[in-house]
Write a structure and sequence with these properties.
Order of helices and strands: EHEHEHEHHHEHEHEEEEHEH
Oligomer: single chain
Bound molecules: nicotinamide-adenine-dinucleotide
Radius of gyration: 19 Å
Distance between the termini: 61 Å
Structural class: alpha/beta
Number of strands: 11
Helix content: 40-55%
Strand order of the largest sheet: 1-11-8-7-5-6
């Protein structure tokens, strides 16, 4: 048993935001105001919270921030038209459509309609390909990019490390695994998922364990290799009558029992969560830089 380092995502995110503030000032001085449009269809309460904090962070940094809230009955064509208008708007450098949309919307088609040069979520197939190809002009999905930043800032070596990623979603698990196996990180990566056999045994191999499942406190103490680094991506709302909200947030890792076995671990909340918005701001600045450079190229 060790005293683990509790990775403070809030302070790392605050430092990334300060870097973004300096870069925004430099762009504003060149007459370029980074612009981010966030589109929300329907009134999912968690999505409203995320969209609100993305817009607030944009305004705090001096971005042009556009929040488009559409009713749940918005149809596919109406949503695609909003995306096309944003693609054509020169004041907008980044576009994201908050996930999940209502069930009648084909989310994949909406993602494909976003101009890949403005796809700051990094979900468009062109950006997925650039991630595979390790092309730095692509956009890396914000949550796995945030996890990598936490590992980097905490000085956690990835080269040659055994990394296990639980979850194979396009938003977290797959891009996370690609980043860890890249020529920059050089980890040996296993991706586990709902059909994996002996998940506890797979996790016990991990020097770095990333949990991105969406199942509260699934990862237990006896799944952890002593001294491992555990990054908990899960954000789960668990009913809690003692809270005014009626719920509390918990991760995919049983923090209290797991932490004593780790060298370092992220808490929920206050770990990966704050990093996602910070990396979104970084991606929007990248889009603004790249689009402006392209517009002045001969
Ligand atoms: P998802 O539902 O798209 O994917 C979940 C993955 O977990 C799937 O690949 C599935 O195969 C795997 N899985 C499900 N049950 C399993 C089991 N019993 N054993 C092993 N694997 C299992 O979810 P997602 O979008 O990748 O999100 C995962 C979690 O991360 C959620 O709690 C979500 O809220 C959270 N999340 C957090 C942030 C953030 O900013 N911190 C961002 C995105 C997602």
């Amino acid at each position: 048993m060790t005293t683990p380092h509790i990775i403070d995502g809030k302070s790392v995110a605050a430092a990334v935001i300060e870097e973004c503030r300096a870069e925004t000032a430099a762009l504003l001085a060149q007459g370029i105001q980074p612009g981010l449009a966030v589109v929300l269809v329907g009134s999912d309460p968690a999505s409203q919270v995320y969209v609100g904090s993305k817009a607030r962070t944009c305004l705090d940094l001096g971005f042009h921030s556009l929040k488009i809230e559409l009713p749940a009955e918005t149809n596919q064509e109406q949503l695609l038209q909003v995306v096309r208008d944003l693609n054509a708007d020169p004041a907008i450098h980044g576009i994201l459509v908050q996930s999940p949309p209502p069930p009648h919307i084909d989310e994949e088609a909406v993602i494909r309609a976003i101009d890949p040069r403005k796809d700051v979520d990094g979900f468009h197939p062109e950006n997925v390909a650039k991630l595979v190809l390790e092309d730095p002009t692509g956009f890396v999905p914000c949550t796995p990019a945030g996890c990598m930043k936490l590992l980097e800032v905490c000085g956690i070596p990835t080269a040659g490390a055994e990394a296990v990623v639980i979850g194979r979603s396009m938003i977290v698990g797959k891009p996370m695994a690609l980043l860890l196996v890249s020529k920059v990180s050089n980890a040996t990566v296993t991706i586990a998922h709902s059909r994996s056999k002996d998940l506890p045994g797979i996790c016990r191999r991990a020097d770095i364990l990333i949990a991105a499942v969406g199942r509260p406190e699934m990862v237990k103490a006896d799944w952890i290799k002593p001294g491992a680094v555990v990054i908990d991506v899960g954000i789960n709302r668990v009913p809690d009558a003692s809270r005014k909200s009626g719920f509390r947030l918990t991760g995919d890792v049983a923090f209290t029992e797991v932490a004593p076995h780790c060298a370092a671990i992220t808490p929920v909340p206050g770990g990966v969560g704050p990093m996602t918005i910070a990396m979104l701001m970084k991606n929007t600045l990248q889009a603004a830089r790249q689009l402006s450079a392209a517009s002045i190229a001969p």
